[in-house]
């Protein structure tokens, strides 16, 4: 079976070397694998949250599309499209909005960070925050769930959003009693390099330390590389290659032998100026053929337009029937259709307010379950079981036991639930002790709520 891999690229900036090495190159490589069905799209609705500058958004959409195509993305193989061409996405966003716990969105990092900034400066908590930022995770969940993506390659900062997408998908499935949505998983590529920028910090537009991939051509590329900050060691003095941004960038482009040779030259005292020239030449070797394709695409964007429209047709072929099924499930049916559906069951109505278990089958075939709080936070993940009945029996026991009947402990930064002296479920690792303590309190409450409901 193919794994559907989906990711979105927010169209606000101009691609730089860090984007290329960290996201574009690995995504293009993944898309060539036979076991991968790749969906890549321009997240231009997300861009509207950050920017009201129409020209900039237009330019960024074009530049990003051209960059990905120039980097070797094959639109025949991949479904490559613009989010804003898929009318089903905002429609699904609304369906998900109506089951999203507001409390969950209050806890989303991007929104919370904006609130914290306001509070620090003594402003009203929500000053200057648009509701788009608040709803950002729901839009992102719709991007993912509309296409039943299995894996979502993202940076660490986005893991929480994938968890929310899972939660929303699971909630919908549970309320409507059917597996409407595949539950996605974040794919964090540990070995993919994060490139340092000109000042040695992570290359990022927000630090203003980027090296452009194509913008400004090879002249700009060379000039920017010449501005990489180094120490003041003179030619002839040995350089600390392993702590130099120059070497890290070189290694992201070169093969192993080349990188070893470059490192040795630095240790042997190559001057920084020569090292920068060598780095420029190595990067340019990879970038030059792509830049040529990029410039041809930008010069006549009608090819890009056609490719993206074809991508939208492919994407909608999946999203349209899916939304039709959801509309039907939600009761948004044609008045003349005679499909009388049974009224929702009592448990379905109750489910949106009570803590709940959700069972699933792991990639290795084992059976597990998660416990979610009434607010939809994931509290526990069970150990794997080979027998689904054993997993079911355990849920039943936890439900009836109440907090007195189970042992709850904190182990490092995770909460562990034990029964008969055996750990049977645990939480994820929390970032600090107060968060872990909160989670334990939440879990206690959930278990007591479950016991009260039995
Ligand atoms: N929010 C993502 C980012 O800033 C971009 C994005 C939007 C996305 N929708 C997505 C990524 C869906 C993965 C899946 O990086």
* Helix and strand pattern: EHEHHEHHHHEHEHHHHHHEEEHEEEH
* pLDDT averaged residue by residue: 92
For the CA atoms, what is the radius of gyration?
25 Å
CATH class descriptor name of the largest domain: Alpha Beta
Beta-strand residue fraction: 5-15%
- Characterize the biggest β-sheet: 6 strands, antiparallel
Short précis:
This protein is an alpha/beta fold and 454 residues long. It has helices at residues 17-31, 44-50, 54-70, 88-97, 102-106, 109-120, 131-145, 159-176, 217-226, 245-253, 256-267, 272-299, 302-330, 346-351, 388-401, 433-453; strands spanning 3-10, 36-43, 79-82, 151-153, 185-187, 356-361, 367-372, 378-382, 407-411, 414-419, 422-426.
Strand-helix topology:
Blueprint: E1 3-10, H1 17-31, E2 36-43, H2 44-50, H3 54-70, E3 79-82, H4 88-97, H5 102-106, H6 109-120, H7 131-145, E4 151-153, H8 159-176, E5 185-187, H9 217-226, H10 245-253, H11 256-267, H12 272-299, H13 302-330, H14 346-351, E6 356-361, E7 367-372, E8 378-382, H15 388-401, E9 407-411, E10 414-419, E11 422-426, H16 433-453
Parallel strand pairs: 1-2, 2-3, 4-5
Antiparallel strand pairs: 6-7, 7-8, 8-11, 9-10, 10-11
The structure holds tryptophan.
